[in-house]
Structure formats: C-alpha cells, structure tokens
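Hi R.,

Here's the chain you asked about this morning:
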Amino acid sequence: MSLPPIPIAKPYVGAEEEAAVAAVLRSGWLTQGARVAEFETAFAAHVGAAHAVAVTSCTTALHLTFVALGIGPGDEVICPSLSFIATANSIVHAGATPVFADVDETMNLAVASVEARIGPRTKAILAVHQVGLPAELDQLRELANRHKLLLVEDAACAAGSSYRGNPIGRPVGVAACFSFHPRKVLTTGEGGMITTADAQLAARLRRLRQHGMSLSDLDRHRNVAAGYQREQYLEIGWNARMTDIQAAVGLVQLGRLPGIVTRRRELASAYGRAFSDHAIIATPLEPADRQSNYQSYVVQLRGHTGAQRDRIVNRLLEEQIATRPGLMAAHLQPPYAKTVTAALPMTDRFGDESLMLPLYHELGADGVERVARALDLACREAG
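And the predicted structure, written out as tokens:
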C-alpha cells in the first residue's frame, strides 16, 4: 500500500477561524473595518510595536513603505539576491533600484558585502529575515546609522521569530513588513502588515493603502454622531486594504502563534537530530542570539550542483514527498540578470545547494523520519 503524500507546507487552520469568518460575513461589513483595526492593535501589542498597518501583502507593505519614506527614482536600496523575487520587485515598484549584496552562512545579508555596495545613491538597506531566521540587525543598524541610511526589515517569514530576546516586528530600523500568505507561520490567506515606531509614517501608510483618503470608511462610521464628513484625497495612493474577513482569521492565528512556533521548532529539532553528522546534508544555522520560527526548513546538500539537487527533488516526488529548491537567487532571473556588477559567491552556492523540506504543524515525528530516510537514500543514490 502506498504511503500518503507529504506536502511541502500546509496552513494550520480550524473551526475557530471558520467561526470568525462566519461572524464577519453575518456582520455585513466585509472590507477594511473594525476587525482590521482590532488585528492591527493586537499584532502591534504582540510584537511590541507602537503602530501596525494592515495591507494586502508583504510586497505591498514594502512598496508602500518605500514610497512613504520618499525612496524612488534615482535611489538605490541594498538587499539580498537570495530571497523571493518580491523583495527586489518591491524596490522597483517604488521606482528605485535594487543593489544585490551577498549573504553569510546563515543565508542572511553579510554586513561586509552590504558596506562594500554603499554608494552615493544608496538610500536604504533592506534586511530579509531569511525563512524566519533574523538577520544581524544590530550590525546592520550601526552600518545604516554610520552612512545615514534607512534600515527596513523584510520580515515576510518572521512572525514569531526573535532577535536578542526581542520579537521581530519591534523594528530595529524604521519599519518591519510581514506576509500572511498561506506558506507563512501566521496566515490570513493573503495579507501583510507594517510595524513602525513612527506615528507620522504610520498615518501616511494608512492613507496610501486607501487611495490617499484623509478619512477611512470606518472613521466615518464610528463618528456618525458628528454628521456627514467628506473625505479628501491628499495624494495618489493605492487600494491595499485588508478585508475584515482576513483580519478575523488573523486574530485567531495570532492567538495560536506561540504554539505554532513551538511545534515548528520541535519538528526542526527532529530534522536536526536525523541529519546530525551527515556527510552531505547540512542543517541550517541558528546563532544563539536569534530564534527562528522555522517558517521553512532549508538544508544544504554539500558540494551538489543545482542539477543534482533537482534530481533529488524528483526522486523524492516519486516517494510522494514534496520538496523545493531552497532559496531562489533573484539576480539569475531575467528581469535582474544584467544588473549584478559584483560576484555573489555565497548566494550562488546556496542557490545550487539548498533544499527546502516539508514542515507544517501536523507533519509529526513519523513524517520527519520518513522524509529524512527518503532524502538520505536519494543523496546516496545521487552520489
């Protein structure tokens, strides 16, 4: 009898999320409203941020943040190539230019590589918390301050992670941007959040997400006693509103988050034990001052080419186990292929050698053992 398929990921949702969505549907208010405001307040409190602004995605969050910070045509933002392409795209959406820096052994930005790429047009550093592991924020902040640059955190994968005892989302820089895609630890289906300590930045982000409006629909509804209030459109904005349906799911998910992270860390530890001292499979690094939520579990296949890695991916598919090439390198994709002027050796290495393994709440110890056994065999067959 064949074993059931093991997917790469699976969102952890249940009856509480269903009930929360049903309550919103019955309320008659489906778009950005009271549930979004409640989710923003709860998320800000959870991460220790002064302000949280809900939007449609992390890509949107980053784009609007750059616009609100005045970053645009003629400006450069230093970021890793080793990240989902949306990281670089968000910079381009704002009219600026991404400049790719290399990464270190943690797969996060290498501070020395960032410093080497600072030039007269550099306005910001975009630090990605790679698959949930925080970047070296203190050093990046010091570097940004020394060169009078802005530091923005791409925290798409990092809800529930921490750096030196502080939750990711209490920004070390000017803002942190999150994703709530189904592949993330906390999901609303789609959605994003921006956290910041800057009240003026938060206020402008709230305008930009709703066509530049001076007064939201919810504000008008709450202040009905004041009579009719006519909004103004203070600048050109976008429609980046989160729905109350999504926010209702997010509120339930936020309550689940500590338990979800604990579970994922347990599964990551099980993978670590399974691959300890393996000749080919290297487990991810987690420095002592950082705690990952293990949004994904990415191993390295030491000395393997991308072609060898892809053959292993296909071999595991034959065993009904879904894996993925671990991390993409944006500079190898057509839109950015001609933009790199300096070598990115660590990025190239991780692009070839990294492999993402299944990790989700219900995987279980048996699932980890099955994946580990199949991967070990596939590696030995690949040579």
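The chain has two domains: 15-254, 257-382.

Let me know if you need anything else.
M.
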